[in-house]
Amino acid sequence: MRLKALLIVAFLAVGFVANAQFNFPEDPEQRSEAQTLWTLFDDSYKQGNYEAAKAPLEKLITKFPKLSSSVYINGIKVWDESVESAKDDAARIAAADKVMQLYQLRYDNFPGDEAEVIDRQANHAFRYYFKDAEKTNYTLDLFKKTYELKGNEAFYPVARYYMQAAALAFTRKTGITDQEILAIYDRVSEHIDYQIAQAKAANKSTSRYVKTKEDIDNKLADLNLIDCAFITEKLVPEFQQNPNDAELANKIFAFAYSGGCTDEAWFTQAAEVVFTSSPNYGVGYMLGVKFGADKEFDKSKEYFLKSVELTDDNTDKGKAFKQIATTERIQENYSEARKYAIQAVEVDPTLKEDMYTMIGDMVMASSSCDKLQSQVDDRARFIAAYDYYAAAGNAAKMSQAKAQFPTIGDIFTANKEEGQTIQVGCWIQKSVKLQRRPE
What we know:
With about 450 residues, the protein is mainly alpha-helical. About 75% of the residues lie in helices and about 0% in strands.
């Protein structure tokens, strides 16, 4: 039986050597011990019996540390599972520390492996230690070394975790400076931009990388380190060279919005690119307001109308129509102003008082419509204004309009009668019942 067991061990060892690089000792006794320990470890590992695998693993790394990098690769998996399944913090921390030890032992015994797996170690360290303030700088150092060794080829989650670790260092007041955080942000952004470009070149989905990029930008924005000067000096020049870069425009938009730089011309330009690349009501409405404030009324109207098409919320639709009505009134395009005021009321009846009062005010102010031929015909527009105020339920304005009605003498002179229907012309184009001014 002993001979059979030794043959099995030898057979298994030969099989493993064929599939991995092993450095078995030349001494037969040590070689046999190393083969036996490896077999015990590997069998337990493959069967998922990680607890049983730990004892031979410990002997392997102690007595035969240069046997194979596979010892460390699988050993890390064994102890990583213990991190996940730990029943208390002490056990979890002990298991995490063991994983980090195995990484370091692998590097010590197989120096070329560090550049290959340092990104995995850094990700493990963040996952294990992100709640531990004392490990913050240790984790940051691992991420820094990751970029030194792997550059943009590092596994893409490194970018998100490095930025999160930097943010934790900032909130924990570890001494990290604003400049260091911004440098980390620049580095991880370069990494993700590279990964996005690689995915596009290979016709692969970029969604995971784009999401990572958004998370990085949001994390920096949350720290409130970005001011208008930073955007102007660092981002705007690049945007001016690449004015259709939607990703850069989104970044500028987000930072400027949170930093209070929305009055800058470059912010509006970036917002337009953001809207073009990803149309949404909020950005469109904001652009409508901004162009209206700048008296670029055609562009203002264009964005408000686009905004209406991008929402199913009638309150939002009404707000946009109300804005158009207001800007048309400013331009004295009263007929258009009335059209959009009525549309605003149709989608949002709560605007009825404001909108019909505005129409009444426009009618009241339209002295240019008077032909100065008949007091009745000219003052009929005040009756039209009265009717709009009545629709608005605005009693005070109704009284003001009524005070401008034609007198009974005006009606008699014009050979007309109270209650007679007359047409108000000009842009008003409304039929009214002739009424006299109160005595």
